[in-house]
UniProtKB/TrEMBL annotation:
The keyword Oxidoreductase is annotated on this UniProt entry: yes
Chain ranges of the ERV/ALR sulfhydryl oxidase domain: 73-173
A cellular component annotation (GO) from this entry: mitochondrion
Keywords from the UniProt entry: Disulfide bond, FAD, Flavoprotein, Oxidoreductase
Catalytic activity field: 2 R'C(R)SH + O2 = R'C(R)S-S(R)CR' + H2O2
Protein task: FAD-dependent sulfhydryl oxidase that catalyzes disulfide bond formation. Oxidizes thioredoxin in vitro. Required for the import and folding of small cysteine-containing proteins in the mitochondrial intermembrane space, and can act independently of the oxidoreductase MIA40. Can oxidize the cytochrome c oxidase assembly protein COX19, a typical substrate of MIA40.
The protein's name in its UniProt record: Sulfhydryl oxidase
Top-level taxon in the UniProt lineage: Eukaryota
Length: 195
């Protein structure tokens, strides 16, 4: 028998601590098993995973559809090129007839950024050369669209593609048919977004 007056207290604490350890160990995941357990398929098939279903506040949970391999295939260089030209020609078609100084700066910046961030080294280098030889013309909608058509044709020529007739550029990439002129950029206010 111990003479220490704190012995009952220490024994109680030790017993609680052991009991907690036993219970908590059931919830802990061993570090080397974590990677195999947390695959995408287990997120969607494991009914206990918090992301496996989303409750909409009713009794019926909505199960996430399984991710098919076909859907996550990355874009090809050609698909990305088409998407980028679509973006650029569409922007040029909506560009105002009388752009503000900020809008003219933005058009030039957009092309400069593209020549640095376009995710294809060969295309970046080529586009940098094209921009040097053909500085961005962004004084009006007509000017920007025609300039873009011209530089697109420079790329087309280097790839052995057909030359697009630039007098038809507005017919190919026309203005949006937006309700109440809500896409109109002519009255854009000069709000400078600081990054
Ligand atoms: C800035 C930039 C640089 C690129 N550089 C390279 C490169 O160095 N090497 C490479 O392999 N690929 C490059 N690409 C991709 C390449 O230009 C094409 O996008 C890709 O090869 C797919 O071509 P496509 O025939 O489907 O039509 P795209 O050239 O993508 O054109 C899309 C559509 O635009 C229309 N169009 C075509 N020419 C014009 C024009 N002059 N003006 C207006 N509309 C037009 C046509 O309706 C056409 O179907 C570049 C893309 C961009 C955006």
């Amino acid at each position: 028998m111990s003479d220490n007056p704190l012995t009952p207290l220490i024994n109680t604490f030790t017993s609680i601590s052991r009991s907690l350890q036993t219970h908590l160990s059931r919830f802990l995941i061993a570090p080397d098993s974590a990677t195999t357990d947390l695959t995408v398929s287990s997120l969607t098939t494991n009914p206990l995973h918090p992301l496996s279903s989303v409750s909409l506040g009713t009794d019926t949970p909505v199960t996430a559809p399984p991710i098919k391999e076909k859907e996550v295939k990355p874009l090809t260089k050609e698909e990305f090129g088409r998407a980028t030209w679509t973006l650029l020609h569409t922007i040029a078609a909506q560009y105002p007839d009388q752009p503000t100084r900020q809008q003219r700066r933005d058009a030039k910046e957009l092309m400069a950024i593209l020549s640095r961030m376009y995710p294809c080294k060969e295309c970046q280098d080529h586009f940098k050369e094209i921009l040097k030889a053909n500085p961005v013309q962004a004084g009006s909608q007509e000017e920007l669209s025609q300039w873009l058509c011209h530089v697109h044709n420079v790329v087309n020529r280097s790839l052995g593609k057909l030359i697009f007739p630039c007098q038809r550029v507005n017919a190919r990439w026309g203005k949006f048919d937006c309700k109440d002129r809500s896409c109109d950029l002519d009255n854009t206010s000069e709000i400078d977004i600081k990054l």
